[in-house]
């Protein structure tokens, strides 16, 4: 008879992730999540970490903040088990961060949602003026956005 040792439920979730060891000589790679819980993650990868190794793991989160901004989950973790094709980590700390996206790119989830509610996903066209006699001072100033 199998007895479940985990105290938290694991949910099957396949997401791309990057990882890097924490320390003087960082070693990194990419993988894919197999499942996730509130305490840890099982990551499919050929990496061979020693149990107890500390890692920084970054996952591209599947939902958008406010329907427009991509998120990533950034965690500091410790390897607790490893196998030939995957390893398990527990969270030491974690936080969600916003991700940058190339200009003009709209996530497919955002496009689908925008189409469903009838919102244009293309940037607005430059304003047109009825006559060419409009002075420059009459035109609205362009919007400026600062980098974070």
Mean pLDDT: 76
Principal-axis shape: globular
Q: Just name the CATH architecture of the domain at 11-98.
A: Beta Barrel
Strand order of the largest sheet: 2-3-4-7-6-5
Instruction: Give the total of beta strands.
Output: 7
Largest sheet at a glance?
6 strands, antiparallel, barrel
Strand-residue fraction?
35-45%
Task: Quickly give the structural class.
Answer: mainly beta
First CA to last CA: what distance?
Answer: 54 Å
Element string (H = helix, E = strand): EEEEEEEH
CATH topology of the domain at 11-98: Thrombin, subunit H
- Fourth-tier CATH superfamily name of the domain at 11-98: predicted glycosyltransferase like domains
CATH level-1 class of the domain at 11-98: Mainly Beta
Integer-rounded radius of gyration: 22 Å
Helicity range: under 10%
Runs with pLDDT <50, length 5+?
112-121, 127-137, 139-148
Number of helices: 1
Descriptive report:
The chain is mainly beta and about 150 residues long. Helices cover about 5% and strands about 40% of the residues. The chain is built from one helix and seven strands, in the order βββββββα. The chain has one helix spanning about 110-115; strands at about 10, 15-20, 30-35, 40-45, 55-65, 70-80, 85-100. A six-stranded antiparallel beta barrel has the order 2-3-4-7-6-5. Strand 5 (about 55-65) and strand 6 (about 70-80) form a beta hairpin. The radius of gyration is 22 Å and the shape is globular.
């Amino acid at each position: 008879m199998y007895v479940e040792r985990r105290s938290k439920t694991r949910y099957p979730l396949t997401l791309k992730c990057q990882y890097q060891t924490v320390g003087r000589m960082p070693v990194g790679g990419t993988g894919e999540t197999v499942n996730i819980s509130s305490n840890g993650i099982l990551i499919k990868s050929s990496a061979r970490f020693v149990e107890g190794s500390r890692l920084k793991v970054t996952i591209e989160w599947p939902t958008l903040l406010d329907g427009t901004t991509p998120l990533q989950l950034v965690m500091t973790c410790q390897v607790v088990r490893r196998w030939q094709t995957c390893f398990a980590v527990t969270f030491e700390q974690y936080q969600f961060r916003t991700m940058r996206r190339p200009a003009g790119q709209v996530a497919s989830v955002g496009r689908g949602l925008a189409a469903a509610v009838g919102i244009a996903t293309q940037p607005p066209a430059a304003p047109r003026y009825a006559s060419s006699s409009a002075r420059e001072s009459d035109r609205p100033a362009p919007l400026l956005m600062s980098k974070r």
